[in-house]
Each structure stands twice: as C-alpha cells, then as structure tokens.
Amino acid sequence: MKIENRATVNLNYQKLMAHIHSVLEIVPKEHMRGVSKLVLVDYITDSRVDPQMRRELPGLYHPKMPGSPQAWMEIALKPLTPEGSFWKRLSARLALRANVTATLLSLIAQHYYLTLSHGVRKDQYEHAIRSYVDRHLSLYARTRKGLRAWLIRPFLPWLERLARWLQKKQKSR
C-alpha cells in the first residue's frame, strides 16, 4: 500500500512511517485487499462531511466508488496534535502514536467490514469495528518489544480484569 504525506505538521515523518508500517504488519493482508493508498493530511477536506466535523475528524475511509478505481484512507494529523498550552501539546505528542494506531486500525476495520466481510448487518458495524480495533490493538501490544512493553506486560491481566469490571459497572448504571 502506498503512503502519501501531504501534511505540514512538524513531526518526524520517518518515525511515523516506520510506526505505520509496523501497524500494517500485524493486519492480515486479506483485510487490506482493495486499498490503494493511505494519505496523511492536516485536516479532512471532503465536501461530503459537515464543516465542523472536518476540523475534529481524525480519519476518513473512502470506499471504492464508480469514479475511483480503488478504496483509500485518509488520516488527519492536526486533530491528533492539538495546539494550546504546553501540557496539552506534550500529552498529544506522547499519545500520537497510539492515536494514529487506533485511527488506522479503525479505518482498516471499516474497509474490511464494508467490503470483504459478509454476514454483518448495518446496525452491527459499530460494534464489529470496535471489537476489531480492540483485538488488533492487543495483538499489536503483544508484539512490541522494549522497556515500556516489558514493564507493563506483567500487569496486563490485572488491567484487563479491571477494564471488564469497569465496563460492567458502567452498563449497570
């Protein structure tokens, strides 16, 4: 898949591209069949999207249409790197890779469930996409190596139990 950079955000694009390629390695190639490119932009500029929503939308999937030969994806970097106070910018920079990973996986899930997967009804898409992203985020976290992953890995079962408990508590409200 071709990755185009049309963004003007001040980032280290070599590291960002390497990160995107590492995320794409965990996704089965069959799930990406039919996607021609991934475009990194400042903001989503599609006229079909509400103007207020365009400023906040981190990603957009463009399905295969009669006028376009292939499906493609767009990731907006400005909503993922907001401006403001020093602490807000710092927290956004620290969370950038995680946000790009989640956005990319959600776009891939949209492509997979809209074009390649059969038996999923329209009212089930949102739940199916969320579960796809969660499943692949945990797979990505297990494949990572490094000090942070090594330190966090022993606590993951406990954190997952805590997350399930919190979800159950939230649903009971």
Overview of the molecule:
This protein has about 170 residues and is of the alpha/beta class. The protein has one domain: Collagenase (Catalytic Domain) (3-Layer(aba) Sandwich), CATH 3.40.390. Helix content is about 55%, strand content about 10%. It is built from 6 helices and 4 strands, in the order βαβαββαααα. The chain has helices spanning about 15-25, 50-55, 85-115, 125-145, 145-150, 155-170, and strands at about 1-5, 35-40, 60, 70-75. It has a 4-stranded mixed beta sheet, covered by helices on one side. The chain is globular. The model has no long low-confidence stretch (mean pLDDT about 90).
Can you lay out the helices and strands and say which pair or pack?
Elements: E1 2-5, H1 13-26, E2 35-41, H2 51-56, E3 59-62, E4 71-76, H3 86-116, H4 125-143, H5 147-152, H6 156-172
Parallel strand pairs: 1-2, 2-4
Antiparallel strand pairs: 3-4
